[in-house]
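Structure (tokenized):
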């Protein structure tokens, strides 16, 4: 189902009983620091079968779990898969102890060091670009120079924006990369963030369930829907805050 529906309609259907419910974060569960309508019921209904699968590259699973707890939503770090954290874990697995020029906010910088990657913006073996709110002109020039010299660049996520608390689009990693890519347009920077299948595939592996026993909810067909399709999981698109559902109500009162 690719027509957007409200979360309440999802909760009224058969999907919450699936063995694993994979959920996007921004615009699906929260918007800024606001918990979206009916999300507490989703957490209560789905319990340990609920997983967050997000392109977030500002938090770690640990820091996001704490942030959600402060909003009254309990989910342990083990059931939170974030593109930024997974990118660093994949790099450490492929190239243990690599010298990395990491452009990211503090939680990911701390995680990178804890994993054993070595921060090095002078002679890096790899560049990782995340949603770095302090990225500067000189950083853009430097990343472009590394890329031009053949140092591999990885993006934590390709999104160019995510909705802010009032719906205003906020710059994301893909927007930062667009500035670099304008300088070195021949360079390609891969990402394991959605729409790639890596995050939902890892959630299914950890949950120990097959794709057919799971469902994926998210607000963006191009990323959430494509990632779900890539691993064969049914996708339900939820309305964004302020967006009207396209499906009419079944009966008199609107249940969508
Ligand atoms: Mg979203």
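Design, position by position:
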């Amino acid at each position: 189902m690719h027509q957007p529906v409200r979360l309440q309609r999802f909760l009224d259907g058969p999907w919450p009983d699936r063995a694993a419910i994979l959920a996007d974060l921004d615009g699906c569960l929260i918007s800024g620091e606001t918990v979206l309508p009916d999300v507490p019921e989703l957490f209560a209904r789905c319990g340990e079968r609920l997983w967050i699968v997000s392109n977030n590259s500002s938090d770690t699973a640990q820091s996001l779990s704490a942030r959600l707890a402060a909003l009254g939503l309990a989910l342990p770090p083990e059931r939170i898969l974030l593109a930024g954290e997974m990118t660093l874990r994949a790099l450490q697995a492929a190239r243990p102890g690599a010298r990395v020029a990491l452009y990211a906010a503090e939680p990911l910088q701390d995680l990178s060091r804890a994993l054993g990657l070595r921060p090095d913006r002078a002679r890096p073996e790899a560049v990782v670009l995340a949603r770095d709110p302090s990225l500067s002109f000189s950083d853009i020039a430097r990343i472009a120079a590394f890329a031009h010299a053949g140092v591999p660049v990885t993006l934590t996520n390709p999104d160019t924006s995510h909705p802010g608390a009032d719906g205003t689009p906020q710059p994301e990693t893909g927007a930062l990369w667009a500035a670099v890519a304008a300088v070195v347009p021949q360079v390609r920077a891969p990402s394991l963030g959605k729409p790639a299948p890596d995050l939902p595939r890892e959630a299914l592996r950890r949950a120990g369930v097959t794709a057919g026993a799971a469902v994926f909810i998210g607000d963006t067909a191009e990323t959430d829907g494509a990632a779900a399709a890539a691993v064969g999981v049914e996708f339900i698109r939820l309305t964004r805050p302020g967006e009207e559902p396209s499906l009419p109500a079944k009966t008199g009162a609107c249940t969508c």
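Reviewer-requested clarification: The chain has two domains: 7-55+194-237, 93-183. The pocket of magnesium ion is lined by residues 24, 26-28, 218-220 (CB under 6 Å).
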